[in-house]
Amino acid sequence: MAEGQIYKIHSDFYYVNSNGQEFECKLREVLKKTKQSVFVGDFVEFNNGAIEKILPRSNFIPRPSVANIDRVIIISAVKEPDLSFSQLNRYISFAKYYGIEAVLCFNKNDLSSDDKMIEKVFSIYEPLGYDILFTSALEGLGLDEFKEILEGKTSVLCGSSGVGKSSLINAVSGLNLRTKGVSEKTQRGTHTTRHCEIISLDNKTRIVDTPGFSNLKFDFILPLDVDKLFPEIYKYRDKCKFQDCLHINETDCCVKDNLDKIDETRYQSYLEFVEEANSYQEKIKYQGTKTESTHKKHNDNIAVKISSRKRQSARNTLRQNVYKDIEDEGIN
Ligand SMILES: Nc1nc2c(ncn2[C@@H]2O[C@H](COP(=O)(O)OP(=O)(O)OP(=O)(O)O)[C@@H](O)[C@H]2O)c(=O)[nH]1
Ligand SMILES: [Mg+2]
Ligand SMILES: [Zn+2]
Using a 6 Å cutoff on CB, does residue 332 contact ligand 1? Predict the structure, then answer.
């Protein structure tokens, strides 16, 4: 039995790198039946072109679906498509939720000379501890710093379509991955990269090109957990009067008392995520009501409380749905 790492998946084919050699494999039938998710980056045991076992992951993110990574580099464009702080906060919080370090890279810097925007980026994200890079894949700006960030790690490039993920990889690797312009009509990327792929720059440095995606929603966590994704909000939560304070319109809320110290776009994102998390809570409440409807309610006024076990199982179902969505979409 050999061991290796999946570096690319195309429909039913899994491409495995084992000691520098590449193998085209399929999944063993028994493994298929377990419905276990298989990601680029997974370490596997394989034999005669058949993957027998997926080895435990050190970490993963489900979008783009990649396992065993050191960090996510969130790529935004300063223009074409326009920079969206709301999108950026989504990627940042997503990486935080999965416990993966993030670096922020702002590409297409040749298209803008907006110093105010650069200042804003630094003023919001530097105090939060993020490394920040401005690059131009086209004009070769900031590439030395970009390479430095990559050095000795496995980094996943993540961001909307058309921001220049593949172009940046081309610029630092000399490869010629497919890249394509942003549509003039919609100002959106054209989903040029269709699959995740690990690209080795040297023995220790690897970079994962991924398809762009943008419709990331926080409808898989509970509203009370959203503040954990925002350290600058979370640090006040112990001083809120109510333990279940959502920091929206409660009285004696320490977060509201300190709103002048929290960036507006960050708080706005917090509110958006809470709203999405509310719809998740409604969904599991509904599932809980259905499963608990056989129990006689003592008091109709009391909202149905779901046991943590049921909540977890509903959460798992939703997680599975996330994976299903990924598979249905085929790429992202
Ligand atoms: N002006 C400018 N254009 C760039 C830069 N980087 C990339 N582009 C252009 O932006 C377009 C999209 O680049 P891609 O590298 O395909 O973007 P991507 O993020 O890989 O997109 P997907 O694969 O669809 O997710 C291409 O036309 C690139 O030539 C840059 O630094 N400056
Ligand atoms: Mg691409
Ligand atoms: Zn509060």
Answer: no
| Predicted confidence (pLDDT) per residue in 100-120, tens digit | 999 999 999 999 989 999 999
- CATH number of the domain located at residue range(s) 61-209 in this protein: 3.40.50.300
Extract the tokens encoding 138: 């086209």
- Whether the per-residue pLDDT at 294 is higher than 60: the answer is no
Ligand located closest to 256 CA: 3
Q: Does domain 2-57 correspond to CATH entry 3.40.50.720? A: no
Which residue spans of the chain are classified as CATH 1.10.40.50? 223-329
Per-residue pLDDT tens for 201-260?
998 999 999 999 888 999 999 999 999 999 999 999 999 999 999 999 999 999 999 999
Cα–Cα distance for residue pair 293/68, rounded to 1 Å? 42
Decide if 40 contacts 67 (C-beta within 8 A): yes
CB 54 within 8 A of CB 28: no
Torsion of CA 293, 299, 304, 307, to 10 degrees: -90
For residue 89, the CA-to-ligand 3 centroid distance in Å is 20
Ligand 1 contact, 110 CB (< 6 A): yes
* Probe target for ligand 1 pocket from 138, 179, 196, with the most ligand atoms within 8 Å of CB: 179
Q: Mapping DSSP to helix (H, G, I), strand (E, B) and coil, where does residue 280 land?
A: helix
Instruction: Establish whether residue 189 lines the binding site of ligand 1, counting it when its CB lies within 6 angstroms of any ligand atom.
Output: yes
Position 184 pLDDT exceeds 80: no
Q: Which ligand is nearest to the CA of 241?
A: 3
Q: Which of 97, 41, 9, 99 is nearest to 319 (CA)?
A: 97
Q: Which two tokens stand for residue 201?
A: 């720059």
- Token duo for residue 249: 């319109």
**Distance from Cα 300 to the centre of ligand 3, integer Å:** 29
**For residue 88, how far is its CA from the centre of ligand 1 (angstroms)?**
17
The CATH number assigned to the domain with range 223-329 reads: 1.10.40.50
In the three-class reduction of DSSP (H, G, I as helix; E, B as strand; rest coil), residue 162 is classed as coil
Q: Which atom of ligand 1 is nearest to the CA of 189?
A: 24
Mean pLDDT computed over every residue of the chain: 88
